[in-house]
Amino acid sequence: MLRILNVLAIVALVGSAVYAYSIKYATLYQAERMAKLKRELQSETDSVAMLRAEWSHVANPVRIEVLADKYLGGQVMQLSQITTFAGLPEKAARGDEIGAKLQDLGLAEPTNTPAAASAFSATPAAPKPATPAAPKPATPVALKPATSGR
Predict the structure, then answer these.
(1) Mean pLDDT in residue range 17-34
(2) Which of 57, 75, 102, 135 is buried most deeply by CB count within 10 Å?
């Protein structure tokens, strides 16, 4: 019995050592991964800073003015080029382009479809003439006088 307890104690000791080492190596792995992510973050931050510096150089108004004069032969803006909102032309009206194309093709007229044609009939049913519905006569409504609850 004493030997069984000694073997169980040794197995428990080895198991706890394996568990402790697995935690240690998992912690080291996570620390290395965190350090790698910090380096990547710093690299991205440096890249963003470099791109911002490049953009400020590219978007510099003095540089753009020099390039515009060199390549576009820029002219000085005249006062007559400035207008008010009322001087702008009206927005073009948008039409029904598909409807206009159908009308050009002669397909804009409504078609006569059979309303109650049987699936087995060879001749389509004649369309019913449209009749306007007669208006219903208005019924008089008796109004009660308002009573105050005072």
Answers:
(1) 96
(2) 102
